[in-house]
Amino acid sequence: MTAVLRTAYQKSIAEYWDAERDPVNIRLGDVDGLYHHHYGIGEPDLSVLEGPAETREARIIEELHRLETAQAHLLLDQFEPREFGPQGFGQPGPLGASSRLMDAGSGRGGTSFLANQRFGCQVDGVSISQQQVDFASNQAVERGVDGQVQFHFRNMLDTGFPTGSMNGIWTNETTMYVDLFELYKEFSRLLAFGGRYVNITGCYNDLTGGRSKAVIQIDEKYTCNVHPRSAYFKALAANNLVPISVVDLTPHTIPYWELRQKSSVATGVEDPFLTAYKEGSFHYLMIIADKV
């Protein structure tokens, strides 16, 4: 395995996330100790905007956290075993104690802990932010699952894990930091035959002819490089990862952003996201693919 931070760009991303203490990540995680680094889906309970003013913000924070946790559960739903039949495909047996999953770009570990709770399997989180790895590792110790859920300062493009060692891998809003062909080459190596990959990501709409002004603002905010929608399918196909389902989550995430815009944890990026989603230049997709 080569050095974890391979380029000046990767070093700048690591520095960004090492220094990050954004309340939208910290305060939401404080609700129940699950710290996510992604957005939410579902219909919010707008009654949180009503009632006593002194508790209004706490109600909004709890509701935003509920929506982001719902997104994590939807992602993990895709690793549940499915029946073969005329309506679709299935995947090999249920995950269990002997199974192994990888959270590529694991942040502060929220979804990794949910995966371990649900499946009872080993989970390896990977991040190029040492601060995130340390935070999540401490969480694992506090939760008493450090023997099953481990976090590693490693590069998702070159993890060093054994070939065929993973039953499943997910990326949750992390692919915009890497080359997709390099990424899926590594994931294809890591996944056992029939292993599943789940990706939730924002991507720009190729039909618009390029990044819109709003998408460029999103890139600038997070120092990332949002990919076109088509790039995902080209890179998957080139690496024996066959999509079995693609779900457009765009209409399901807009309400999250509209509620977040009304909160004290708004960062200013809400307007570009809402503009890009509503004008159709940006999509929020969930892609499920199997290794063949």
What are the defining features of this structure?
292 residues, alpha/beta, Rossmann fold, 7 strands, 19% strand
What can you tell me about this protein's structure?
It is a single chain. The chain has 292 residues and is α/β, with parallel strands linked by helices. It has a single domain (8-77, 94-291), classed as Rossmann fold. The protein contains 10 helices and 7 strands. The protein starts with 7 loop residues before the first helix and ends with a strand.
Cα-atom Rg, whole angstroms? 18 Å
CATH top-level class: Alpha Beta
As laid out across the biggest beta sheet, the strand order is 3-2-1-4-5-7-6
Q: Output the CATH homologous superfamily.
A: Vaccinia Virus protein VP39
Taken from the alpha-carbon principal axes, the silhouette is globular
Largest sheet: 7 strands, mixed
How many individual β-strands?
Answer: 7
As a percent range, the share of helical residues equals 25-40%
Number of helices: 10
The oligomerization state is single chain
H/E series, N to C? HHHEHEHEEHEHHEHHE
The assigned CATH architecture is 3-Layer(aba) Sandwich
Mean pLDDT rating? 94
CATH topology: Rossmann fold
- Give the number of domains: 1
Low-confidence stretches: 84-89
Strand content: 15-25%
Q: Specify the structural class.
A: alpha/beta
